[in-house]
Amino acid sequence: MFERLSTSETDPILALMQAFQADPRPNKVDLGIGVWRDAEGRTPVFQAVKTAEERIWHSQDSKIYVGFRGDPGFHAAVSDLLLGPEGDGDWRAASATTGGTSAVQTALALARTARPDLRVWVPEESWPNHWVLARSLGLETRNFTYIDPATQEIERAGLLRDLAGARAGDVVLLHACCHNPTGADPDPELQEEIVTSLAQSGAIPVVDCAYLGFGAAPEADLAFLRRLSALPESIVAFSGSKSFGLYRERVGLCLALTESARARDAVESQLTRLNRETYSFPPDHGARVVTEILTDPTLRASWDTELSAIRRALIDNRANLAASLRARLNSDAFDRLTRQNGMFAMLPLGTERVARLRAEHGLYIVGTGRINLAGVTEATCAPVADALAAVLR
Ligand code: PMP
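# 4'-deoxy-4'-aminopyridoxal-5'-phosphate complex -> structure
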């Protein structure tokens, strides 16, 4: 049977990571993989996580299964964080998932259950797994215009024109904040226009929230998600990987906002079924850590402070790279880096320049031109800017 198999395509970022590790040059710089790193290149465990884990270690006396949809305390803690407390006429159905990947997958599978013929609208520039997940569920994908490649600013007119083609019951995948890979997020006016477009078409937003707190304080980073959640129906796919630094613990939540108690109950039963059909019970350790942090004022304040340090570093790295490129290229083309958010930005490189950067300068960048700003630290900014200027001039 295995003789029938051919090798599956390798993930390009994973391949880049392996090549970086094998490179003996001491001055190599990795701007590829999408994890947060500090100036020393480490991805430390949040102190708030350490303390929460210590408390759980002391208090937890059983590892028995939790429910099929995970711990209701976790659902409530994350849903309160994202949307504020549940009020009257606010029917939320939630399921813990294995990270944000599985939250997006669950959201799409849930929507497919209701509408087997739905189409999934994905921004033309997006996290590549959005297409992978939709297609693995047998769903048709459509791209909508997102960025103007020349300016790397959002192409507003094209975006709204394409979204107007969505049908009632279609799914529109949107990034809550810190768009991956461009870092370009809709301003409040465009956010409103997108909400109006969805209200008119009846398409359902699936809001991918994987970088909460990386662009601005959580309340500000949640503005678009909250606008979208005012629509009659929406789904949020939350990831705790970056915002809580819990990558390998696989913390995620699929949260559906429904129009009635009856719909909420039906969605909950479908979410239960979806988990039963895949992994039965979602992992609980990371979810419990997040619940502990969000429900304890001291831990929550500590998390907030640690998250804001990450955010400040990203903002500084963006400003330093923009200034360095401005000085070297005598152009303001990269000033936009300071107006964009989160870990990622796209540079106009093309595969040939990306290959040169790697071969001649030891600078590792994804073939699409996406860079991770976490890698542009005080120590690496000048050599990175020198290398970029050398290929961009
Ligand atoms: N959505 C986006 C936009 C992402 O960039 C990522 C992580 N790369 C995820 C979801 C999923 O993250 P995870 O499964 O690690 O929680």
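# post-check
The chain has two domains: 7-44+312-392, 67-295.
The pocket of 4'-deoxy-4'-aminopyridoxal-5'-phosphate is lined by residues 34, 99-101, 104, 127, 175, 180, 208, 210, 239, 241, 247, 252 (CB under 6 Å).
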